[in-house]
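Quick one - inputs below.
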Amino acid sequence: MSDLRELYQEVILDHSRRPRNTGTLSGARRAAGDNPLCGDRLTVYVAVDGDTVRDVRFEGAGCAISTASASLMTEAVRGCSLGDTEAIFDRFHTAITSETDAPLDIDALGKLAVLTGVRQYPMRVKCASLAWHTLRAALHGATAPVTTE
Amino acid sequence: MAFDVEKIRADFPILSREVRGRPLVYLDSAATSQKPRVVIDAIAHYYEHTNANVHRGVHLLSVEATQAFEGARAKVQRHIGASSTKEVVFCRGTTEAINLVSQAFLRPRLATGDEIVVSHLEHHSNIVPWQIVAAQTGAVIRVARIDERGEIDLDYFTSLLGPRTKLVAVSHIANSLGTINPIEEIIALARAHGAHVVVDGAQAVPHQRVDVAKLDVDFYAFSGHKMYGPTGIGVLYGKRELLEAAEPYQGGGDMIRSVSFESTTYNELPYKLEAGTPDIAGAIGLGAAIDYLEALDWPAVQAHEDLLVEVATKRLSDVPGLRLIGTAQRKIGVVSFVMEGVHPHDVGTIVDQEGVAVRTGHHCAQPVMQHFGVPATTRASFGLYNTLGEIDRLIDALDAVRRIFAL
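Output:
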């Protein structure tokens, strides 16, 4: 059960039960993402001022991991520059897709480190990454919905 | 011949393995069943002793391979009550069998405005092939609705039938919910309107004896791997005159009698519909699975499987916050459910940690999920090797879910 506790930490359960920054942003960039395997769907809205992510919100339904990841993502990138947002995405994505015994830069990941437990569960990596790919699609103005498949 | 589940379990090597430090509890047989030793051995024996291509060589191995392959076809024919081996077409599985009917049989017969009736319970493999052929021909899909228990509304189904109905496609047993559909009545109703009927039997053949002649069904499709046989092999049963009337499905070797650049003539049934080298080992493995199934005491098997569903339904109903999805009066092999406050994927990951394998997701039946207003369910499905003790393990694992999510 030690691995599972690592996956379902209190922070994750808290963010999945009470996700932060949910809802829509009118006039903002947006993108939809879905994980056909489990039926998770979400829409990410991101308001950009110049080079800064002024606000980011999401709505949708998913498992604890995808909901918590979306919630933590909004907290992590709000107020960041576009370049920093991209760097956070890269750091996070590299971490959750790394080998289970690869070292992690916990300090650099900050609060997002709680999600790295998904490394142990290859089928769940998509749950953790869905919101992030969708955010990126919104920032890059992608028109096709993001899908994990 | 009493039913001894421990004796059955000893026939399935994989059931003795551990998962995450616990004895495996395999509750995903509706996705694919485990394989008894005799099936594994038959496949290994074929590759070690017989391997050659079929219907071609004059050498001994080819003769033996052909005999074993055609022997497997004869076993299928007897097992399902087909009148001839010409009515048994080998294919990759249920999905390919249904695609074959839609393209080789139905497509040339469809005109704009013709209707295909499917039920709301169907697996995507019994929906999408019909959507494809409808788009190709201008035909229309009509959907027979289901009620809150997950049963087909027969009155509504009847109201859909008319002079434009060319084909009815329905599952024998619904993969997502386990509902046993009244296919005898559905076949009779369709027949009265002159429509052909395709039955997706993938979930039925592992759980009961099927007699296609008695059913008087036009086409019956199933997969080897859900009936304790290997993946990669499946069967399309079709009435001979209908298969004769079908166009070739794919072109290639084995399906022809003669080929020239001026004209090509096709082989007789069933080879006309079996282009290319078939899954020879798969067919032989399926034959071994059929031998295995036929040696069982079927009333005892069914009583055992009915008990599993009955006990699982009762035990799950007692779990706080759990809602059963699909409560048909006649069910087999499947219990599907959702837990309030926990997504099925989280349920699946946590129970897996306890060594319990269940399926979570939409079960390739998204319209069923939409009907019940859920994105996904957790599905426990049973094979003849499952035990009441394994249901205890499932319930214990769900307790772990409730602990972690503090429910």
